Amino acid sequence: MNPRALTPDLSISPQISATDVASLKALGYRAIVCHRPDGEASDQPNFQEIAQAAKQAGLQAVHQPVVPGQASAEQAAAFAALCAELPKPILAYCRTGTRSATLWALSQADKLPVAGIQERAAQAGFDLKAVVQRIANAGKTPVEVVDAEHAVVIVGGGAAGIAVASSLRAREPELDIAIIDPADVHYYQPGWTLVGAGVFPAASTARTMASRVPAGVRWLKAAVVAFEPERNAVVLEGCRVVRYQRLVVCPGLKIDWHGIDGLVETLGRNGVTSNYRFDLAPYTWELVRALRGGKALFTQPPMPIKCAGAPQKAMYLSCDTWRRNGTLKDTQIQFFNAGAVLFGVPDYVPALMEYVKAYGIDLRFGHTLKRIDGPRRRATFMRAMPDGSKEMVDTDFDMLHVVPPQTAPDFVRASPLADAAGWVDVDPATLRHKTYANIYALGDVSNTTNAKTAAAARKQAPVVAHNILASLSYAVGQAQYDGYGSCPLTVERGKVVLAEFLYGGKVAPSFPAWLIDGTKPSRAAWFLKERILPPLYWDGMLKGREWMAQPALLD
Fold first, then answer.
1. Which of 64, 355, 388, 518 is found 20 to 30 A from 8 (Cα to Cα)?
2. Of the listed 34, 239, 319, 487, which one is catalytic?
3. Torsions phi, psi of 479, nearest 5?
4. Is 34 one of the catalytic residues?
5. Needs which cofactor (predicted)?
6. Which structural domains are found in the chain, ordered by start?
7. CB–CB of 21/53 below 8 Å?
């Protein structure tokens, strides 16, 4: 938390947490305005959590969500009205504070000279040059004003974005590359399953973004709001424009916490948790350790989702803990899966079913979580019946691990790059866009049919890097991606079923069966998951070292 005063009555801050509210009260603030839509990032508390803390502290809290880069004159006027009505002083916040400062600046356009707006914002630490352009341009986005231009622009600084940047730099060190991402922190998300099981501390899965961006690559710390492929341009928040020769799209996917009624109001309390958020994975472990019998529910939404095995990984590791502490016999475990099968690649199902039986798990296929009543600890599922009809099913719980529905980010779904389902439309082998030949996509946001895992991105990054360089005449040949994905299914503490497969569900083991037979639980595979994969991620994949990931070239 870092409040910065724009006026005596209004301060701006980056994202705050629920625990910051008491400090804001002590500093004298009487109202809070949130300008950040829920679900923008995996470490972001939902507004409801802030609002509950504010209510307890006696502060007013208002949610005025603004999509990055799309602050309108109408929203600025609404913010000005809020500032007039709310008790003062007021703290407004978003991801970095820029959105809130922008709304204030736009609201002052007819009250202060442009230079005065810019100077006051600069004194508070905000560079609002792009807003000045908008004010001078009668509020219109100056799309012809180019702020930067690079040979390769990468949208997204997650696993896929950093990996492809590093692969490009390893092949062509002088190539002009920029990464666009607003996040301050880069996460090793595959580690959150083990955080939720008490194996990893949460802090071990996080690094600063600045430390992960490859040397020589420019980092543009901003959010993308639109693609202009006909102009070879990306529009950023604040109406800045970046042009490219080649574009790589890999911003990850959007976790839709609001896709389940009542979820945001009860996350992190009332026994409701999710390993799909950095700050909630430790709560999973807290719940698992504390449970001494009762009913534990685990859910899986309709596909596609990030790491299709993660919902049941959380379940198996929880069951193993209860077995070890002697409470499994007193615990009823149910797995509510929107799909029709336990795992999409049949070769791995027999090993998983042995654990389902050993833990006494009640499998409920065709069930989609629709509503949660946290205080009453009730969950409502929509059940798909064999005749095609639907029925609603209610059940109680003592612990509920939720995996929310997931989609492509809004700015991708609304763009010319997306297919009918909202995912970036690419060739499944070359990962080049089917319409725009100078655009590529990889990672979770593409419409390829592989599993959405870090292992898939590790294989895709060298393919994209090679094909970009070939298109720029730095390399020859065409690289192809075979759909490789991997899912280390943690079936108990110390054993993993290592699922590896290609397009079409074809099994593709990386190791000889005498070392790791992926169709059976293995201690060697656990060692790989716990000890080898994290450093391989941080010091291999993110640094352009393509161990067992060299791309195959078409003849």
1. 64
2. 487
3. -85, 150
4. no
5. FAD
6. 4-136 (3.90.190.10), 148-253+408-481 (3.50.50.60), 257-405 (3.50.50.60)
7. yes
